[in-house]
Design brief:
This protein has helices at 30-52, 54-61, 63-84, 99-112, 126-142, 154-163, 165-181, 187-203, 227-230, 239-251, 271-285, 308-319, 324-338, 359-362, 364-370, 380-387, 399-402, 429-436, and strands spanning 234-237, 261-265, 291-295, 342-345, 375-379, 411-416, 447-452. The chain is α/β, with parallel strands linked by helices and 457 residues long. Helix 12 (308-319) crosses helix 13 (324-338).
Length: 457
């Protein structure tokens, strides 16, 4: 990660006036119930997972593994107590490369408070404190080798994948059918298939283990059968703009050597990752894109978020699946990786607490990389929260305004709503939804395909 010559306060200059951050200090908010109930539940499950692997640690590392397990559980139990009693956030001590940035961020949060109180679980930004919990879980492991590489969420992620297998098979079967005919598709049919796979990738985002606190989040039925009935629940649908961008790029290439690049900032592993890979495969097969860059997490994060290990594991399971359609897709996906037209990145910025408009100063090398893209898909709720700063925006504020200058390239958010922030709605739309469905912002029943193009006049 690039060193920073300046502090984040520089970013405040010229930034539009922004509302307060969502926070657990607002009793009755989703942030409050998350910090009060959901995060302690997740921590309890993490502690239980580590304890259940005690014998494994002993088999692999002897008594050293057992002692490490005890110390890690002790640190996580302390963390849970800090959370439940609203203790101040503490600096990180594990010496990982990102620890300095985390500790600097804590100091900045402290400086912004009007009182002498330190940032704490129920008083600070929800985005910061939720990210902080997952980073402290990692610290508990990092401080206790040989447990540093243990993924406390791995069991839940693999179970979710296997329980979604029938839905994945249905998708693979459909994709392979259209893949055989794709060379003969005209623009109209190509567009129809693109919009269908885009919607599958959108609704795949409902499979989120952090929202369900680790409960079952698998996709048990064929997603293709429900797309039509789900269309009324897409509150913002900018898919036409996304299509126009891609097809115009394809038609207006200066030369055969010109390369259209699409980036996908991933969210959940399991079924959602499979939908993202299917969309990426279609973009390559249709020549709407020449190269796909995937961006995942560098450490286990928000229970089910995709890491490099999850990405590689998914490709391997697809490749070696007993079902022919899954295996055939796995073969194609592995070829894409070997040929260098699918590229995976896990920059540490994605597991920092910063909103994305801070990226040019915090991780200028990542921002410069994203500027090379023709289109960036941001999957899921956490990415949307970071795109918009996780603030109490008015429903009708434009997406461009809420991005606060974060526009490295044309970008599209594919998100099912699971946090109480949403911008870009029509006047009265949010208020009408609140009357008919009080949980409309947090249930995952509604979704958006929301586009921003810095080059659009």
């Amino acid at each position: 990660m690039a060193a920073r010559p300046r502090t984040l306060e520089v970013l405040e200059v010229g930034r539009p006036e922004v509302p307060d951050s969502l926070s657990a200090k607002y009793t009755g908010s989703f942030a409050y119930s998350t910090v009060k109930d959901r995060l302690p539940t997740i921590l309890t499950k993490v502690i239980d997972t580590v304890h259940r692997h005690k014998d494994t640690f002993f088999e692999e590392h002897g008594q050293e593994g057992v002692e490490a397990e005890k110390r890690a559980i002790s640190l996580m139990s302390k963390l849970r107590n800090e959370l439940q009693t609203d203790k101040p956030a503490l600096p990180l001590t594990d010496g990982l490369p990102d620890a300095g940035l985390w500790n600097e961020y804590l100091e900045q949060q402290q400086a912004r408070l009007d009182t002498d109180e330190n940032p704490s679980w129920f008083k600070s930004s929800w985005l910061y404190m939720e990210c902080y919990m997952y980073r402290r879980i990692q610290e508990s492991l990092q401080l206790n080798p040989p447990m540093c590489d243990f993924d406390v969420f791995n069991e839940a992620k693999t179970q979710s994948f296997f329980e979604s297998q029938q839905a994945i098979i249905a998708m693979c079967t459909y994709f392979l059918e259209i893949n055989e005919k794709i060379e003969g598709f005209g623009d109209t049919q190509l567009k129809a298939e693109f919009l269908l796979l885009l919607q599958i990738a959108l609704w795949g985002n409902r499979c989120d283990l952090s929202i369900s606190a680790g409960q079952d989040n698998s996709q048990k039925f064929n997603p293709l059968t429900s797309l039509e009935s789900l269309k009324p629940f897409i509150l913002i649908d900018d898919s036409e703009f996304v299509w126009e961008l891609l097809i115009n790029n394809k038609k207006n290439k200066i030369s055969e050597n010109a390369c259209t690049r699409v980036d996908i900032v991933l969210d959940n592993s399991g079924f959602e990752l499979a939908t993202d890979l299917m969309l990426a495969n279609f973009l390559i097969a249709s020549r709407l894109a020449d190269v796909i860059h995937f961006h995942g997490k560098s450490i286990p994060w928000f229970v089910s978020d995709t890491t490099k290990k999850d990405f590689d594991w998914t490709l391997k399971k697809m490749l070696t699946a007993n079902h022919m359609q899954m295996s055939r897709c796995g073969v194609m996906w592995e070829k894409n990786v070997k040929k260098g037209i699918w590229i995976y990145h896990d920059h540490p910025f994605w597991t920092l607490p910063h909103e994305f408009c801070d990226m040019p100063l915090v991780a200028d090398n990542l921002y410069a990389e994203l500027q090379k893209s023709n289109l960036i898909f941001f999957k899921g709720d956490l990415n949307y929260r970071k795109l918009t700063g996780d603030r109490k925006w008015s429903y009708t504020v434009s997406f461009d305004t809420a991005l606060c200058g974060f526009q490295p390239a044309p970008l599209c958010s594919l998100r099912t709503l699971k946090a109480d922030v949403q911008v870009g709605l029509k006047p009265g739309q949010g208020e009408q939804l609140a009357v008919s469905d009080t949980d409309w912002m947090i249930s995952g029943r509604y979704a958006i395909i929301q586009f921003s193009n810095p080059y659009r006049k």
